[in-house]
Amino acid sequence: MCRYDVKQTIVALMLVFSLFLATAAPSHAASDFDHFSTGFPLTGGHQGADCDTCHTRGIFKGTPTRCGVCHGSTSRLSGERKPAGHMPTTDNCEACHSTYSWTQITSFDHGDTMGTCSTCHNGRIATGKTPTHVQSGNSCDDCHTTGGWQNARFDHSQITGTCASCHNGVTATGKTPNHVTSSNTCDDCHTTNSWSGALFDHSNVIGSCASCHNGTTATGKHPQHIQTGNLCEDCHRNTAWSPVTRIDHADVVGTCASCHNGTTATGKTPNHIAAGNTCDDCHTTNNWSGATFDHGNVTGSCASCHNGTTATGKNAQHIQTNNLCEDCHRNTAWSPVTRVDHADVVGTCASCHNGTTATGKTPNHIASGNTCDDCHTTNSWSGAVFDHGSVAAGSCSQCHNGTTATGKPVNHIQTSAQCDSCHTTRAWLPASFDHNNVSGSCSSCHNGTTATGKSATHPLTTNNCEACHRTSSWTSLKSIDHNEVLGNCSACHNGGVARGKPREHPNTNQDCGACHSTRTWDR
Length: 523
Description:
By secondary structure, this protein is mostly loops. It has six helices and no strands. The chain has helices at residues 2-24, 67-71, 117-120, 163-166, 256-259, 349-352.
């Protein structure tokens, strides 16, 4: 294509030049001189040229034989010179022209051109870039050879447009149908040497990782990959799969233990507390340490961890107990305790309830031993079932004084004795009455109100009960003290209340005392 266009241009120029010679050149004088003998045979157009065209002033010796000396643009000879519109070249005419005609160009030697390619290949002197030519500079020889426009060796350094301005599938090869989803900046990944061997620039990708890394278009997740979503970029960098930048646990679809099993990822250490495999019950995805412990997932007992080694154990001041921490403590904090389960305490009550470790006896507590559970329950101090077993005998009134504990009521019989002389420690009643401890008279109690009094059939007497009765029984009289009788003898001795006159008694209306004494009937 190049050679044809150049020849066509030169032929047109030489045709004009030949017409000029045909009309202006003087006719040749015939000569028999053998010009061949000079070493410069006359051929083509030189055969009809006048001698003085080359041999000026009749000088034949030393006439130049190179075309450019006569036909050069600055030659002083009268030979035809290069026209002003001739393309920039050296004066080596024979490189392209023959002696037969200027327009009959035998070949085109780009080695004799003096300008750049675009000096001629500008669309006017010679064929220039076509309208569909890629956007590039004017250095044709960066890609093309002088042998032909085709089979160019493409030099991308001369391209002034973007990759996609050519690589659009029409001007030049574009992205294939299975190309990764990306922008049109080809050189982000590819070089100008070859499509293959691309150095992939992920910043130019507009699709998601998984749109390419699906195991078909590009490498996908391998069989040993942890169970996750397809957001590769959440963990991996775009320069290499490993090492990962981080593990974004939000993308993990399996359980903690599906990875943290000691093989795929770090699992529970040998000294880990006995627990289930739901790591996130205690740990966060940021760090193993700083766990917020969830006791709900623990499978062992408290003491299996809270032994002073694995986790905090009982301090030196802890009360004496077994190791069932959960019976008293909550799993959110050691204190305050939820309750004290006294069933777990192995010491005595007083070992804790000493006023220092735990509440002890108040200053106004009754005098007693330190066995609290003799009276109190583990539910509350109040509502105690009092065990008098630890109270010293004869000391009832120290408590039962009407202030510390219930004392004698207003209508209590007169006595200075201690309560336990009559009463038991279980209840005030029934009492086992000991008359030896009564400080009042019999009738102060035996008045029919406080205690049993004289019956309706009782003889008329004073109220000095003890004169006749024992304290053990009313009916078992110890004696009849007639000094206490207020009526006459027959008021009792009538055969009903007491022994009266027998049958053989003489008839008399005298009172018994007229004859008898109170000591005996006989005297």
